[in-house]
Amino acid sequence: MQAWTRPGPFAFEGEHFNFRYVNLWPRPYQQPHPPIWIPSMGSSETIKWAAAPERKYPFLVTFSSRDLVARYLNLYREQTKQYGYEASPDQIGWASPVYVADTDERARKEAKEGVETLFNDFLAVPFQMLLPPGYMSLPSMKNTIRMRKALGAQKRLTIDELIETGTVVVGSPQTVRDQLSRLRDATNAGKLMTMLQFGVLSDELTRRNMEMFASEVMPHLQG
Predict the structure, then answer these.
(1) Phi and psi, residue 59, nearest 5°
(2) Helical ranges in the chain per DSSP H
(3) What distance lies between CA 42 and its chain's CA centroid?
(4) Maximum alpha-carbon separation in the chain
(5) 75 vs 42: CA distance, rounded Å
(6) Rounded Cα gap, residues 107 and 87, in angstroms
(7) What's the pTM?
(8) Helices H, strands E: what count in the chain?
(9) Among 198, 192, 188, which residue's Cα sits nearest to residue 157?
(10) Binned average pLDDT, 10 residues per bin, the chain of 223 residues
(11) Which of 42, 56, 122, 183 has the fewest CB atoms nearer than 10 Å to its CB?
């Protein structure tokens, strides 16, 4: 925050790191600074930290099933109430791969390779490297382990399984609109980060996906 808002050079002494010389260049164009959004897979510490009244950072759940997205976003809402205020829709959201085609069948066929390479190859990280000891508290570690098991982290995932759990949103414009609307209504979330290119999805399919999402889905969700 200081690097974004304080003209350098300056010295920084923090709890974990000390820097004798900080001088960010080029300066951020957006003033006073770009918005800060906190992505998470459900760590309770992250929820408490992001929801703190002095921050009120928007909280986004990533790479998680439909049920877990709703659960963690509602936990964030409950945490803000404990802090004495109500979370606005702009403070909560989720990020998900989304693919739109003319029909559900075509969407599954075209998105299959991209979705499956994303989750099975590009997001595959040995557990000891993903969450080394001390990275999070024991309760949060247990929750994350349960979540990974629920996603089938020990075997290769199929697009059908990922669609079924709501980890990805793939289908016709009507199917995609319905799925996104249901989750929005269940959580009162106001932010959606769409991943319209994923894995090995080709340039041609990515462009078509973006165009269909912009013309067939976005107008129905805005406002």
Answers:
(1) -115, 125
(2) 2-5, 44-51, 66-82, 104-117, 127-130, 138-150, 159-165, 173-187, 203-212, 218-221
(3) 10
(4) 58
(5) 9
(6) 35
(7) 0.84
(8) 10, 7
(9) 198
(10) 90 94 91 92 87 96 91 94 96 96 98 96 79 77 67 75 96 97 90 95 98 96 79
(11) 122
Preceding omega of 26 cis (within 30 degrees of 0) = yes
Please name the amino acid found at residue 46.
T
Residue 93 pairs with which residues in a beta bridge? 60, 191
Token pair 């606005």 is found at 88
| 64: its two tokens | 């998680």
Tokens 């041609």 sit at which residue?
A: 204
Distance CA 146, CA 27 (A): 42
Taking CA atoms, 112 is separated from 10, 154, 162, in Å, by 50, 19, 10
Q: In angstroms, rounded to a whole number, what is the distance separating the alpha carbons of residues 143 and 219? A: 36
